[in-house]
Amino acid sequence: MIRLIASDMDGTLLDSRKNMPPRFEDAVRALAARGVRFAVASGRQYECLLRDFEQVRDDILFIAENGALVMDRGRRLLVDPVPAGQLPGVIATVRAMPGAYPILCTAEGAFIEDREPVFMQNALMYYARCEIVPDLLALCAREDVCKIAVFDPLGAEHCSNPALRSAFPALSVILSGEMWSDIMRPGVNKGTAMRAIQRSLHISPEECMAFGDYLNDLELMQTCAHSYAMANAHPLLKAAARFEAPSNDENGVLRVIADALGIPL
Q: Could you say which of 3, 47, 198, 250 has the lowest number of CB atoms within 10 Å?
């Protein structure tokens, strides 16, 4: 019996135009009525997710910041910060990379120090609470820095991400999108967040279903017996998942849920 379903956002639950599936809110309420919890698992900020899921916020668990922050009905289940001593070196390194921009992501909001238009557009897309500050280094003493997100319009996978992995072997550097990397404390990911939820709600991996499309969903696939990579997923994620769902442009997440649990679309 499925008791918990987790889904990534971009490339998974949302279609290519960033639209929510039709009747998604009805599906979440139908699941809740059957005692099935739905978790959104995203690299996005918690405040951004609250905005996107306002109508069903009390029926959803939020795995934000790629697993560094978990919220349930306004209560923190988990916050897993980056060691403060590591932050200045990361910021200085990203600043020196051509075309790359850092975002300091905390449990209370995000901070940027650059107004470049393309970067600003992308930052505000994923970080609803975002403040421009003169110097990110001045914030490095905070104890709730969940991650440093790095925007690289030249392409993260083949440009900045390998360099960041080499520069910071003591941190977790995750490829979270075509133009995004997330730098976090080692061992922090959507999978560790999912395990925290499973422990909190006394739910086993065999009672869980998960959906994803990119490499920051790898560990999430490993925590759920019913793991689905989208048809549009990265090849390595397809290899890690047990099943394949129709693509995000074919409403794959809700179609699989409807077939498996008998939820009407």
A: 250
**CA nearest neighbour of 40 among 253, 262, 199:** 253
Model confidence pLDDT, tens digit, residues 155-212: 999 999 999 999 999 999 988 889 999 999 999 999 999 999 999 999 999 999 999 9
Q: In terms of Cα–Cα distance, which of 199, 188, 173 is closest to 67?
A: 188
Residues 106/68, Cβ–Cβ less than 8 Å: no
Q: What is the CA radius of gyration of the chain?
A: 18
Please name the amino acid found at residue 265. Answer: L
What pTM was estimated for this model as a whole?
A: 0.85
Q: Encoding tokens for residue 75?
A: 């209560």
Phi first, then psi: give them for residue 64, nearest 5 degrees.
-105, 165
Closest CA to 232 of 250, 219, 220, 217: 250
Cβ-count burial 37-72 (b if 16+ within 10 Å, e if not): bbbbbbbbbbbbbbebbeebeebbbbbbbbbbbbbb
Distance CA 26, CA 50 (A): 17
